């Protein structure tokens, strides 16, 4: 038996046992495929990469973070070969330089609201709750993290329903995550579960997949869907560096194939 190791940023080694007879003679040599991916993809990509390594023998190095910060790191010279962003703007910016391929939408997400224990809200009353004086509204950081950009897009939609809502929400929103200087949760705790459990916000706007994961970690949290009039679709863009290895291209292509899409769907993402 042989271990296929997957390198995760931070130095953690994750591996799965695979049969050496199935791929040992064809396993590619060299460094792992470097994949930079939005933090909201952590659970899905960890599972997908584990299965892909076992199936192909190609090692995958996963680095997660806010998409805007990852794009900046790539622009500063870090050697990612595949970039999976929570929007299409950041990979398109890389493509505009000529060094990366045009991005392709490979999965979709949406915004939901995490609510603190005791705060009762429904999709129909969520906007009123967000606007209520004294209710602390948390978001990620626009520019650095597409989740923050989507939150401000929701604020603009809210202004159509209730004139003046954008100014009020823009003024009160607490940008708690997604920036380079944002505090990090203790080891073993998810970012959004930690933000809510530590009382930093009463309502936090994040991806529905993140909200469900936070509720699994802290069952007392509520998850509230957003009504269609406020809903903002999050399209995730995938791009590959020009001249990347054949293994990098193959892994990127596998993210659009049935096996990976089934994992993403099970974890709450929508098809591209």
Fold and architecture overview:
With 272 residues, the chain is an alpha/beta fold. The chain folds into two domains: 2-107 and 235-266, 3-Layer(aba) Sandwich (D-Maltodextrin-Binding Protein, domain 2); 110-233, Periplasmic binding protein-like II (D-Maltodextrin-Binding Protein, domain 2, 3-Layer(aba) Sandwich). It has eleven helices and eleven strands. The chain has helices at residues 20-23, 42-56, 67-75, 89-96, 126-131, 146-161, 165-172, 191-197, 208-217, 246-254, 258-266, and strands spanning 2-8, 12-18, 33-38, 60-65, 82-85, 104-115, 137-140, 174-177, 203-207, 222-225, 233-240. Strands 1, 2, 3, 4, 5, 6, 7, 8, 9, 10 and 11 form an eleven-stranded mixed beta sheet that branches. Strand 1 and strand 2 form a beta hairpin. Helix 2 (42-56) runs antiparallel to helix 11 and helix 6 packs antiparallel against helix 7. The radius of gyration is 19 Å and the shape is globular.
Features:
alpha/beta; 11-stranded mixed sheet; D-Maltodextrin-Binding Protein, domain 2; 272 residues
């Amino acid at each position: 038996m042989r271990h296929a190791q997957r390198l995760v940023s931070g130095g953690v080694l994750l591996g799965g046992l695979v049969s050496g007879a199935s791929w040992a003679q064809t396993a590619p040599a060299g460094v792992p495929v470097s994949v930079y991916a939005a933090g909201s993809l952590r659970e899905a990509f960890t599972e997908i990469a584990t299965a892909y390594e076992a199936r192909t023998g190609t090692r995958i190095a996963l680095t997660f973070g806010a998409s805007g910060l990852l794009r900046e790191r790539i622009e500063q010279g870090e050697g990612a070969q595949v970039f999976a962003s929570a929007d299409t703007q950041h990979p398109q910016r890389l493509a505009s330089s000529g060094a990366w391929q045009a991005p392709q939408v490979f999965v979709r997400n949406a915004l939901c609201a995490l609510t603190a224990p005791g705060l009762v809200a429904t999709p129909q009353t969520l906007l009123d709750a967000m606007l209520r004086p004294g209710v602390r509204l948390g978001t990620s950081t626009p520019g650095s993290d597409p989740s923050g950009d989507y939150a401000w897009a929701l604020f603009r939609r809210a202004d159509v329903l209730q004139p003046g809502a954008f100014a009020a929400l823009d003024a009160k929103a607490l940008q708690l995550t997604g920036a380079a200087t944002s505090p990090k949760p203790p080891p073993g705790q998810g970012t959004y579960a930690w933000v809510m459990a530590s009382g930093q916000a009463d309502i936090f706007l994040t991806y529905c997949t993140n909200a469900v994961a936070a509720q699994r970690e802290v069952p007392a949290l509520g998850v509230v869907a957003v009504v269609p009039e406020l809903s903002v679709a999050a399209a995730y863009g995938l791009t590959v560096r020009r001249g990347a290895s054949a293994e990098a291209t193959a892994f990127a292509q596998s993210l659009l194939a049935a096996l990976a899409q089934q994992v993403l769907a099970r974890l709450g993402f929508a098809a591209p």
